[in-house]
Specification:
The chain is of the alpha+beta class. It folds into 2 domains: 3-129, 2-Layer Sandwich (Alpha-Beta Plaits); 133-174, no CATH class. Helix content is 55%, strand content 15%. It has 8 helices and 5 strands; from the N terminus they run αβαβααβαββααα. It has helices spanning 3-19, 33-46, 55-63, 70-73, 90-98, 124-129, 133-156, 161-174, and strands spanning 23-27, 49-53, 80-84, 106-112, 116-119. A 5-stranded antiparallel beta sheet has the order 2-3-1-4-5. Helix 1 packs across helix 3 (55-63). It is elongated and about 90 Å long.
Length: 175
């Protein structure tokens, strides 16, 4: 491969890593052509991009990022497939689903949100359980609303009798 071709791939990966927030690096070695084709088809159906590049090119593209991703360099050995998705959980779920039939791909690392690094295949289960920012905001809002809902439902439980008693008590204190 010529130097210009390598630089073109590095530039393409640098732009990809700079614009996409979630990408997974996995070892897909040992898969035959039919299995790779099945994996690509599955990725396409789930809206996940799949790219394969040499580790040195991936490393140079990662080094161009503003976030410190130097910990990823140590795991870049052997063939590396890159799974890119807007949904941070989708590649992890896809890898687990595909591995029900095969032993690969095996997760090397996942970069979530452009900065959070998960290293090792043992992180797949954790990655499938991560909550998005919107899910976390929804949970916090639900927790904040819960006490108010409990008070309102308790007050409404006896057809307004408690409210009338509460108003009468407050009036007697004010006199």
């Amino acid at each position: 491969m010529k130097r210009e071709e390598k630089q073109q791939i590095i530039d393409e990966l640098t732009v990809l890593f700079g614009t996409e927030q979630n990408y997974y690096l996995a070892d897909a070695s040992g898969l035959n052509a039919a299995q790779v084709s099945d994996l690509r088809r599955l990725c396409f159906s789930k809206g996940i991009q799949l790219k394969v590049a040499k580790n040195t090119l991936i490393s140079k593209a990662l080094q161009a990022q503003t976030a410190d991703l130097s910990s990823v360099d140590s795991i870049l050995k052997g063939p590396t497939a890159i799974f890119i998705s807007d949904d941070m959980k989708a590649p992890a779920k896809l890898i687990l689903d595909f591995r029900k039939k095969k032993t690969k791909p095996e997760l090397k690392a996942a970069i979530i949100g452009g900065t959070d690094v998960f290293i090792g295949d043992n992180q797949l289960e954790t990655l499938t359980k991560l909550k998005t920012k919107n899910e976390l905001i929804g949970e916090v809002i639900g927790l904040l609303q819960s006490p108010a809902k409990n008070v309102i439902s308790a007050l409404q439980a006896n057809g307004g009798q408690k409210i009338a008693g509460l108003v009468k008590t407050l009036q007697s204190r004010g006199e």
